[in-house]
Structures are given as structure tokens and as C-alpha cells.
Amino acid sequence: MGKAILAQNAIVSSVPIDAELLEILACPNCKTPVKLVKNGTALKCETCHRVYRIDDDIPVMLIDEATIEPELAG
Q1: Per-residue pLDDT of the chain (74 residues; tens, 9 = 90+)
Q2: How many domains are contained in the chain?
């Protein structure tokens, strides 16, 4: 049973988020368009650096659920 749980958790969505949906999605915090990151498992706002996870092909666009990634020096 332990292996079944590990296998289930290892499944990654093979269906990318719909391109039309991605075009209209914006960060609820600063209203900036978001981009797909982390192999299609999250959406990131380049302005406020919030990362919104995607659960079962559904973007979780809740500010309180987002993580904030530091800005990369470039």
C-alpha cells in the first residue's frame, strides 16, 4: 500500500494549462499576467514574485495560498 501512495503522489499532470486560460489569468495581488513555471505545476507573477500552485489542472489563485519567491539577481 505504501508504494501505491508514493506512485499516486508522483503523478504529474500531463495536460498543460489551456493557452486561452493562461492568456487571461492575472495575479490577484497586483493584476500582472502570470507565467507557467515549475514544469507546469505553478504560475508565477514576475512583479510581486508570488507563485500560485496548480492542483488537478486548476490554478489556485488565492493570495493567502501563494508562496513568494525572492527576485533572482541578474
Answers
A1: 454 444 444 444 455 688 899 999 999 999 999 999 999 999 999 999 999 999 998 999 999 999 999 876 55
A2: 1
Closest by CA to 51, choosing from 60, 3, 2, 22, is 60
Three-class DSSP category at 45: strand
Instruction: Provide the residue range defining the domain that includes 65.
Output: 19-74
CATH (domain of 71): 2.20.25.10
Q: Length of the chain, please?
A: 74
Question: From CA 50, how far away is CA 42, in angstroms rounded?
Answer: 10
| Cβ 42 vs Cβ 50: under 8 Å | no
Per DSSP, what are the bridge partners of residue 58? 55
Do the domain assignments include residue 25?
yes
d(CA 25, CA 19): 10
